[in-house]
Amino acid sequence: MSKMINQFDAYFDKWSAQTGALCYLLCRNRRDSLDVAFQSLLRLGGTKDTEIGENDARMLLFKSAVRLSDDYYLKKMRRLPSRKKLNAQSLPFSMTDSLYAFLKLPFKKRAALILSHFGFSPKEIAEIAGIRPQSVSSITTGITFSTC
Prior knowledge:
By secondary structure, the chain is mainly α. The protein has eight helices and no strands. The protein is globular and about 45 Å long.
């Protein structure tokens, strides 16, 4: 990278854990999700606008993470591993029944729920995940998410 955005270190510290969790919950593979999260952070660091604001940087990072996870997911089209295999991946959180059920949800629904949990507005979720704003409210209404 010839130039890096201002405040990259602060953004990295602030959002790297959430980006990693988002990518894992979308990719469903620990090793590959780390690669996707790292690529997302690299895209943020290499953006052309070095004076990007915090909200724009956050949108860019999470949009990149969802798009790269979607590319990975569609490219691999892997089945959900068994709970036993997921527990063997030394995850930073325990594999509960509700988390396993969550991982069975369709990709865009998982993305909308995770982004909602991270505090994005329905309009921002729709933009990041590439879904209609009306769909976001029907997906996220009444569901609580306590994994990340």
